[in-house]
Amino acid sequence: MILSYKTERLPLNFLMLGFTLLLAGIALLIKGEYQGVIAIVLAIPFLFTHSGLLIDTKKLCFKKYTGLFGLHIGSWANASAATHLQIIQTHETKAMAVLSIARNETNVVQ
Asked: What does R_g of the chain's alpha carbons equal in angstroms?
């Protein structure tokens, strides 16, 4: 049995960039411009990328992955030497700065 835990999405500023590209792409398509398709294709990874953890209880291994539309990119690591696995909830703080805009973000990690 494989257990799946989604841990996080991209930061809010990347999600907003994805929404902006999506809206710009739709507006360009309405106007008949082919660049709208390019903007929509560029928006997809910003909107749908996530990361997580897969645990295979039969093979005793785990995988930390980055995913997009069900495709999980990452490598499996062997956990057979571990005597037990414990999933705990912690808080993670990120500091981000782009140009002159800075912010701190705290997330609950499961």
From this structure: 18
CA-based angle 104:107:108, to the nearest 5? 155
Question: How far is it, in rounded angstroms, from Cα 61 to Cα 74?
Answer: 13
The tens digit of pLDDT for each residue in 46-98 reads 888 888 878 887 888 888 888 888 787 888 878 777 677 676 666 666 676 66
Contact 65, 53 (CB under 8 A): yes
**DSSP secondary structure, 3-40, as one string:** EEEEEEE--HHHHHHHHHHHHHHHHHHHHT-THHHHHH
In whole angstroms, give the CA distance from residue 60 to residue 83: 11
pLDDT score of 109: 58
Average confidence score pLDDT of the chain: 79
Give the separation between CA 8 and CA 12, rounded to whole angstroms.
11
| Higher-scoring residue by pLDDT: 10, 106 | 10
Q: How many residues does the chain have?
A: 110
